[in-house]
Amino acid sequence: MPIAKGRKFIILFDYEIKQKTRWQIFRATQRTGKCIQDAGGKCEVALLPGKEKGIDDWVVSLGKKARRSVDRLVNDSVTLSEYRQQFFIPARGLKKYKPDVRVNTPLLSDAVRLPTSGVVCLLSDMSTGKTYLMEKWRKEYPNARFLNNGHRIALLRNLSKRLTTQMYSNLMAGNLGIAKALSVTADSLWKLAGHLEAYDCIFIDEAAQYVTHLLQAKTLKEHRHEILEVLKYVVRNTKLLVLADAHLTDEVIDFFMAMRPSGEKPYIVQNDWLSGGRKVHWYEGGNPSAVVASAEALLSQGKKVMIVSNSKKFIKKMEKDLIDLFPDKQHLLRALHGDNSGSPENAVFIENINSEVKDLYALLASPTLGTGVDILIGFAATNQPPPTDEEVQAILEDRLAERHLS
């Protein structure tokens, strides 16, 4: 394909719902894209939001909004690698491990009591009291050496307050190891290397996301080896390890059990209670245009909107777009992402989020607000595709939200 050299191609197929046809489209897109790249060209994939089958039907249905929507469709095209990641959905749930205790309760602490040793896995939906269960253990054993380890600073700040620990960011590096009760991010775990001592309990909330961050995040690249060595030591030597997540998998449990003494078995508590009662809108495909249009329409109706994305770039772009569309509401819009979540102003906002969001019309967030925050004010929640665990969780943390997922 000599014509491809130095040029950019965007592949756009019709919208399909049949899995067999979607698989054929996927294979054809991958083959064509590879040929273009091998010939020295650049290839991206644009995805129709549906329900209209072809681009012509979609354009007709949009009317006057067609030009702007088509421009956005093209601008939101993804790379072949991103397209491949969106197509395959990882399996969830436990297959290898079976629960030792199975309950169905809106509040886990009503049915479960934590022991003082072993590995305890809490497989329970959001807002079912996993952290409250740990709070009760802390009150029962206030003098125990305790480590709260997580991957998000917002989560750590929230849990540090509830579990009465010292935040690592408030201590000198040399004092981290001697703190009796400490909350520290995975990124800073390597700082404990010169002060290693055994803990009575280690708590890791959102354990599945924690492992993904630990193994893949670029922010750990420089110290990943030291971080894993410190984690291995403290996990092996702690009396009690508590792993909590609504989406615990065999692989996550295996990851931690490999660090524990040989022959030990995890104690798994599965809570079948599911939060519900809200309307959910599901958008097929990897194109955010339909979700963005929904957000704009909701704001035009005077409704509150929460937009969650796994892309900091998207959140910044969406902030700019909304300011352009609603300049009179600029002061009622807030965007949180990795570049600004650590600022004193936003730290106070996150800590007091339920009072702070009352007057907002739009809250935009990247994974920095993905977990550890409960929003009790009603928002119409949307997210830019594909929805990661953290994006879905951030939307579900808004307990009163009408959900728009894609």
Can you walk through the features of this model?
The protein is of the alpha/beta class and 406 residues long. It has three domains: 2-87, no CATH class; 101-271, Rossmann fold (3-Layer(aba) Sandwich); 280-405, P-loop containing nucleotide triphosphate hydrolases (Rossmann fold, 3-Layer(aba) Sandwich), CATH 3.40.50. It has 14 helices and 17 strands. The strands form three sheets. Strands 4-11-5-10-9-6-8-7 form an eight-stranded parallel β-sheet, sandwiched between helices. It has a six-stranded parallel β-sheet with strand order 12-17-16-13-15-14, with helices on both faces. Helix 2 packs across helix 3. 37% of the residues are buried. Mean pLDDT is 82; it is low at 375-401.
Number of strands: 17
CATH architecture classification of the largest domain: 3-Layer(aba) Sandwich
Which strand order spans the largest sheet, edge to edge or round the barrel? Answer: 4-11-5-10-9-6-8-7
Mean of all residue-level pLDDT scores: 82
Q: What's the CATH class label of the largest domain?
A: Alpha Beta
